[in-house]
Write a structure and sequence with these properties.
Elements lengths: L1 E5 L2 E3 L6 E3 L4 E3 L5 E3 L1 H17 L2 E7 L5 H10 L3 E5 L6 H15 L3 E5 L10 H9 L2 E12 L2 E8 L2 E8 L2 E5 L14 H7 L4 E4 L30 H10 L5
Parallel strand pairs: 1-6, 1-8, 6-7, 7-13, 8-12, 9-12
Antiparallel strand pairs: 2-5, 3-4, 9-10, 10-11
Helix pairs in contact: 2-5, 3-4
C-alpha cells in the first residue's frame, strides 16, 4: 500500500502573530513553525500502517525551502520519502491542484490530509483534492482501518459518530482521535540521523488558477480589563451587564 500524507507548515500556537504590508501579509519573522497538528495525527496513523502492513509512506508539502525542516521532521518520525512542491500555497484550490498531480503521478492508494490547517482553518483542501482525483472521501475522520482494498472509517457527526466503509483509493481529512495524543511520535536521534539520508524531492508546480486572494487580516480585539464589583453592589453589576456587556 502506498500512502501519501499531506503536511502543512504552520506557526506554533505559542508564537506572536503580526502582519505587514497594510495587514495583507503574514509576518514570518521570529515565528516558530511546526507540523500542522491534524496532519501529525495522520502521519502517525500512516507510520502505524507502515509498521503493521508494510506500507510505504511519502509526505508532501506545498511551500518554499523554508518548509524543508518540517518535511525533515516528518522523515525523522518515520516517513520513507518526502516531496516538496516549490510554490507559495496561495489558496486551497491551488494547493489541491498541486497535490492532485503528485497523487496521479505516484498512484497512491491512500491520501491522508488534516481536515484543516491550524493557520487558516479553511478546511477546503481534502475535499477539493478528492474531487479532482475522483477518489472516495471521508472528512473529520477519527478512526481508520485498512484491510486489502477496503477501508473502514469513522467520522464525527453532531451528537455521535458515523462508521463508513469505502474502497481504495481514498482521501481522508483526519483529526484528533485518528490516533491518541499519547501515541504521537517524537523524532529520536536515530530517526534524525536517518532522515538526513532519505530522499526529499523538489518539484515545480503545475499551472493552476489562484481563485481567492487575502485582502486584509485582523487580529481579535484585545480583551478589556476586568472590572471588579462588590458583592453587595447588585445594582452596579446589573448596570454593567446591561449597558456595557449588553448581555441582559
Amino acid at each position: 500500500m502506498k500512502i501519501l500524507v499531506c503536511i502543512s507548515h504552520v506557526p506554533d500556537t505559542t508564537s506572536k502573530i503580526n502582519f505587514v504590508n497594510g495587514d495583507s501579509e503574514f509576518d514570518t519573522n521570529g515565528v516558530q513553525f511546526v507540523i500542522n497538528p491534524n496532519d501529525e495525527f495522520g502521519l502517525t496513523r500512516a507510520i502505524w500502517f507502515q509498521e503493521q502492513q508494510a506500507a510505504n509512506v511519502t509526505v508532501v508539502n506545498v511551500g518554499g525551502p523554508e518548509t524543508d525542516s518540517t518535511l525533515r521532521k516528518a522523515l525523522a518520525i518515520g516517513a520513507n520519502e518526502a516531496i516538496r512542491i516549490n510554490a507559495n500555497p496561495t489558496d486551497g484550490f491551488f494547493v489541491a491542484k498541486q497535490l492532485a498531480e503528485v497523487v496521479k503521478t505516484g498512484s497512491y492508494d491512500l491520501v491522508i490530509c488534516g481536515k484543516e490547517s491550524l493557520d487558516y482553518n479553511g478546511g477546503m483542501v481534502p475535499g477539493m483534492l478528492a474531487g479532482l482525483l475522483g477518489y472516495n472521501f471521508v472528512n473529520s475522520c477519527t478512526e481508520l482501518i485498512i484491510d486489502g482494498n477496503s477501508a473502514k472509517a469513522a467520522r464525527e457527526i453532531d451528537g455521535g459518530k458515523e462508521v463508513i466503509s469505502a474502497s481504495l483509493p481514498l482521501v481522508i481529512g483526519g483529526q484528533k482521535g485518528l490516533v491518541e495524543e499519547k501515541d504521537l511520535r517524537i523524532p529520536n536521534m536515530r530517526g534524525i540521523m536517518t532522515a538526513r539520508t532519505k530522499v526529499l524531492t523538489v518539484l515545480e508546480p503545475v499551472s493552476a488558477n489562484n481563485n481567492t486572494k487575502a485582502i486584509k487580516f485582523e487580529k481579535p480585539v484585545s480583551k478589556s480589563a476586568v472590572k471588579l464589583v462588590s458583592a453587595d453592589n447588585l445594582d452596579e453589576l446589573i448596570n454593567l451587564l446591561h449597558n456595557e456587556a449588553k448581555v441582559i
